[in-house]
Amino acid sequence: MQPVEKAASLGMGMLSGALAAALFKRVWKLASGQDDAPDAGDLGRTWTEVLVAAAVQGAIFGLVKAAVHRAGARTFRHRTVTGAVKH
């Protein structure tokens, strides 16, 4: 992996994390009506609440990470292949 590609990948990772966090917060609020998802250490919440929140959060983070990484890889490949063909 080239330095430029590494830097872009790091930036995309940070972007995908922020995007996933915002998306999860919005989805959780729509689904539960609560502003914050339950924390695993909050003994006032049920196992079901905690585990469902964790599963939804994991799915959203995985989906966003894969989508951003895939889009970045395709863009980087397109730019390097297109750039090589033009010269």
Radius of gyration of CA atoms, rounded to a whole number: 18 Å
Task: Determine the strand fraction and express it as a percent band.
Answer: under 5%
Basic shape: elongated
In terms of per-residue confidence, which ranges show pLDDT below 50 for 5 or more consecutive residues? Answer: none
CA-CA gap between termini:
22 Å
Order of helices and strands: HH
Helix percentage: over 70%
What's the total helix number? 2
InterPro entries: DUF4235
Protein name: DUF4235 domain-containing protein
Pfam families: DUF4235
Keywords: Membrane, Transmembrane, Transmembrane helix
Strand and helix map with partners:
Blueprint: H1 3-32, H2 47-86
Describe the protein in words.
By secondary structure, the protein is mainly alpha-helical. The chain folds into two domains: about 1-30; about 45-85. The chain has helices spanning about 5-30, 45-85. Helix 1 (about 5-30) packs antiparallel against helix 2 (about 45-85). The chain is elongated and about 55 Å long. About 10% of the residues are buried. It holds the Pfam family DUF4235. This is DUF4235 domain-containing protein. Keywords: Membrane, Transmembrane, Transmembrane helix.
What is the compact description of this entry?
This protein has 87 residues and is mostly helical.
